[in-house]
Specification:
By secondary structure, this protein is of the alpha+beta class. The chain has 17 helices and 20 strands. The strands form 2 sheets. The protein has an 18-stranded mixed beta sheet, sandwiched between helices. Helix 5 crosses helix 9 and helix 14 crosses helix 17. The longest helix is centred in the C-terminal third of the chain and has 17 residues. It is globular, with a radius of gyration of 23 Å. The two termini are 25 Å apart.
């Protein structure tokens, strides 16, 4: 341990971030009236204050839409992600972004720096092309090729800053069409991983709210906590050589093309490319608003200040105003004392509350599940209808995509309030989203859209999840499911090993909610 501490101290002194100077602030380009996407947006818009939305529960449709937008953009692409992986999906989208830049489209790509170890060289190669600028949110100064643990070790005295990450996801084309929601750019977000994949939700968006999204993107892009990639780590150097290396990498590791999307998804929609070909896009329309944490949230002196200005606070203030029913999905669900007080108030006001999250076997963050489990009995006592996703039952739920032998995990962050107001975004119901990470979200007032989202949620709830309840006349928990048309009742965390349960329980004694 002493040797490890000495090594950490030695690495910690390796350097600091350079001065964030010399960059040029830029803003979203105005929509080009000659752009085919702009023409379609104008033709489809029923009113100046309206926003159109199409939910995309299937990863194949969601990935295809991003590629279609990149291929059809005429003037600008503004792209913002927490993760942008160097895997077949990441390289596929990078290829589409490069091709757009080569034909003259301005690309601004903003990526959080936490998981860029494997994609750093590709990002630098992409940044070497004309019309492209890549920036990093809250970057690490040192040990950039050492993985997450190595990066933190090399900056151990800067942990307070580096613990804050940008969790936003946004893809805007020509200032008029966008994709937002829960998906990062990586195989597992689009059902392309052989081991595990996420049940997630994105939305294609067009109309009034896209202008607000562009303003949000501009605020991040020009923030003091965002650095041009050529200011951090390895300099770009000979840009022509980097472009050739980028192209050579994509040629040697060709991005596997996605499978053709099915004819229709679970909501009856076909791929958006078909709508683009017809020149008019069919959507559900309503009034919407988009909002995000300030990018400087990481500079907040206290978690209380960070929470008061957060997307979490904004969203939950609206969520807890439900009058008849509330449905929430979140992969990580730690309501905390404030959340529990609101849940109990809704119970007293006879509001039906349904929550869907990951089971212990499904979660990719077992310690976070431990934080959720502390509140599980209290939620049941308050009348919450509680469901936990099964990683294996998703394999037989074909309507949300073909998982094959891969495990399914919930990643969608949604809410449906009183069957008319929906939320979709990047925010989890946990302390990190509230006071540590930055998040993005959007509310849309549309009963028709709420009906569609509930249809998707009900598929996961009824076909891919366990219902959690108290055993009769007891405070012991039971998990209910249907197998071979018969009800099964389990009395321990389903699909989890004894050692996982013990390990998680022991570690949970030492980790507070605020660290999850």
């Amino acid at each position: 341990m002493a040797a490890l501490a000495v090594a950490a101290l030695g690495l910690a002194g390796c350097g600091t971030l350079p001065a964030n100077v010399g960059r040029i602030d830029t803003s979203a380009l105005p929509p080009d009236p000659d752009s085919p996407l702009v023409k379609m947006a104008i033709a489809s818009l029923p009113g100046p204050d309206q926003t159109g939305v199409r939910l995309m529960p299937l990863g194949a449709f969601s990935l295809d839409t991003r590629i279609q937008l990149a291929q059809r953009a005429a003037s600008s692409l503004d792209v913002q992600y927490y993760q942008f992986e160097n895997d077949p999906t990441g390289r596929l989208l990078m290829t589409a972004l490069r091709d757009a830049a080569v034909r003259g489209v301005r690309l601004r790509l903003l990526v959080d720096d936490l998981y860029t170890t494997h994609s750093d060289q590709l990002l630098r190669g992409l940044a070497s092309f004309p019309n492209v600028e890549v920036r990093l949110f809250n970057p690490f100064c040192c040990a950039r090729s050492s993985g997450v643990a190595g990066r933190y070790t090399a900056s151990i005295f800067d942990f307070g800053r580096l613990n804050h990450r940008m969790h936003n996801k946004m893809f805007v084309a020509d200032g008029v069409m966008a994709v937002v929601g829960g998906r990062n750019i990586g195989d597992e977000y689009f059902l392309r991983s052989a081991e595990s994949n996420f049940v997630d939700m994105d939305a294609f968006v067009m109309g009034a709210v896209v202008k607000d999204m562009e303003k949000i993107f501009d605020r991040y892009w020009n923030s003091e906590v965002v650095f041009p990639i050529d200011l951090v780590g390895e300099p770009l150097g000979d840009r022509e050589a980097r472009r050739k290396a980028f192209d050579a990498t994509l040629a040697s590791l060709p991005p596997s093309p996605p499978a053709d999307p099915p004819a229709i998804d679970v909501l009856g929609y076909g791929p958006l490319g078909e709508d683009f070909e017809s020149g008019q896009v069919g959507l559900q329309w309503g009034k919407a608003r988009a909002f995000a944490d300030p990018p400087e949230k990481l500079l907040s002196k206290t978690s209380k200040i960070a929470y008061e200005t957060s997307v979490t606070n904004n969203v939950m203030m609206q969520v807890w105003q439900a009058k008849s029913d509330l449905v929430l999905t979140s992969p990580y669900m730690i309501p905390g004392d404030m959340g529990m007080a609101s849940i109990r108030r809704l119970e007293n006001e006879h509001v039906k509350v349904t929550m869907i999250t990951n089971s212990l076997a499904a979660t990719d963050e077992p310690l976070v599940h431990n934080g959720y489990a502390r509140y599980r009995p209290a939620m049941l006592e308050a009348g919450v209808d509680l469901y936990e996703l099964s990683p294996t039952r998703t394999q037989t739920t074909k309507r949300l995509g073909m998982f094959g032998t891969s495990l399914g995990r919930l990643h969608a962050k949604t809410a449906v309030i009183d069957k008319r107001l929906i939320f979709i975004g990047s925010m989890n119901l946990d302390p990190r989203s509230a006071s540590t990470n930055t998040e993005f979200g959007m509310f849309i007032d549309s009963p028709a859209l709420a009906k569609e989202l509930l249809r998707v949620i009900n598929i996961s709830k009824l076909e891919s999840a366990y219902r959690v309840r108290f055993a009769p006349k007891s405070t012991s928990l039971q998990w209910l499911t249907i197998q071979d048309d018969k009800e099964m009742i389990l009395t321990v965390e389903p699909e989890s090993s004894f050692w996982l349960r013990v390990h998680n329980m022991l570690l949970g004694w030492f980790v507070s909610d605020q660290l999850l």
